[in-house]
Amino acid sequence: MQPEAFSELFTLFNAASPDTIDWLLTISTTHEYPAGRAVLMEDAWGNAVYFVESGWVKVRRHVGDEFVTLAVLGKGDFFGEMAILDESPRSTDVVALSSVKLLSISAQRFIQTLFKDSQLHHRMLQLMVQRLRQTNFRFQIRNQPPAVKLANTLASLSDAYGQVTDRGTDIFNIPLADLADVADISDDEAKKIMEKLSEKGWLKTDSEQGKIHIYNTKQLVDLAGKTGR
Questions:
Q1: What is the mean pLDDT for each group of 10 consecutive residues in the chain (229 residues)?
Q2: How far is CA 200 from CA 2, 29, 169, in A?
Q3: Backbone phi, then psi, for 71, in 5-degree steps?
């Protein structure tokens, strides 16, 4: 990957120096996984940070005899940073939702790079605070109606990872159970709301192409009660 494409794809590196980008490209390792493959397992020690070059993954936690999906990440995002920064075992699994291509950078070299490039260090802190704000917002709407919570989830995924088309925005056709977990609603509620949104013409689930076509992002954002997007 060329340095310009690397910094454009991964917003974490927007402010990094050219020397940092060149260095990271020489030390990164490429990984490819099929859908359904575990990328990282819970309780494995953090030894690298992973960057999603293409595809989709889900972050899940083991709860009793089941798994609960905490987040869905797409192209341009990253994961694994928490475990290397506090030098503790991972508390979650990461599983490929689709075929996925990842880049990894070892924990030691990534931390060294953060110390050497203050702009990258600052950008890392910004993105971590942004994630914390998103978590806080989800907590604030925990008592909202299921439709509001699902609309927020869809709008956030569209904003972060959506591919703009002439008709709207496309995101990966995330399994209903995972979508429900992230929105903190039941599978049945998610199914009924998705059917209703489809009837309204706001979106369409395309199983053949593996996509959710979102035709009316503005109305989804309005339903989610979010402004300033």
A1: 89 91 94 93 73 96 88 94 67 90 92 92 91 87 93 94 93 97 97 96 94 91 65
A2: 43, 45, 16
A3: -160, 155
CA distances from 34 to 31, 62, 95, 148, 177 (A): 10, 21, 10, 33, 20
Q: Say whether both 87 and 32 belong to one domain.
A: yes
Residue 75 is part of a domain; what is its CATH number? 2.60.120.10
Instruction: Look at residue 229 and tell me if it is in a domain.
Output: no
The count of domains in the chain is: 2
